[in-house]
Amino acid sequence: MLNRIRISTTLFLILILCGVLQVGSNGLSFWAFRDGYQNLQEVETSNQQRSALAQTRAVLLQASTALNKAGTLTALSYPPEDIKALMVVARSSLKQADAQFKAFTAQEAVSEKEKALKVAMKKTFDVWYGDLDHQATWLENNQLSDFLTAPVQASQAAFDGSFNAWQQDINQFVARAGADSRTSYRMSG
After folding, report:
1. What value does the CA radius of gyration of the chain take, rounded to a whole number of Å?
2. Which residues does 72 contact at the CB level (< 8 Å), separation at least 6?
3. 156: buried, middle or exposed (CB in 10 Å: 19+, 13-18, 0-12)?
4. CATH topology of domain 2-188
5. Distance between CA atoms of residues 107 and 180, nearest Å
6. pLDDT band, residue 189 (cuts 50/70/90)
7. Domain residue spans of the chain
8. How far, in Å, CA of 75 to CA of 17, rounded?
9. How many CB atoms neighbour CB 164 within 10 A?
10. Binning pLDDT at 50, 70 and 90, where does residue 158 land?
């Protein structure tokens, strides 16, 4: 009879051990899934920020190009209709850039470093946007000398520096998120 109790106790302990292992395995799988989902959400947010920022930059470059063409045509005494068409494109691009940048700033920063980068990005955006807006105003008022001496190149370079820093931070974040997801997956498997 004692033998039977030992066998049934052993079987019962093996059953409990299997249950504990199953619960532990499910817990690790859930943890990996939760971390993977969180990383995916953060990467998606970062990519949306990257997209909005890239669109902002592209539209500002479009405005700058239109202004440069309009300035060249003004200096060469082309018909005002041609210049006005380019000015409409430039003003429209500036409005679009402002809307794109507002979409970028509306998205929440993922880390403290991103918050600091976002503040720096806002400063450089405001300077470049302001320079382009002043350039457009000077050109509309036929102040060609002020238009030509505007420090747009320096403000564009500052914005590009902030833009590149932002891109590098997002790339590093995506690489970290991928490594974290792989680690969680290995732990759960």
Report:
1. 29
2. none
3. buried
4. Four Helix Bundle (Hemerythrin (Met), subunit A) (1.20.120)
5. 23
6. low
7. 2-188
8. 86
9. 10
10. very high
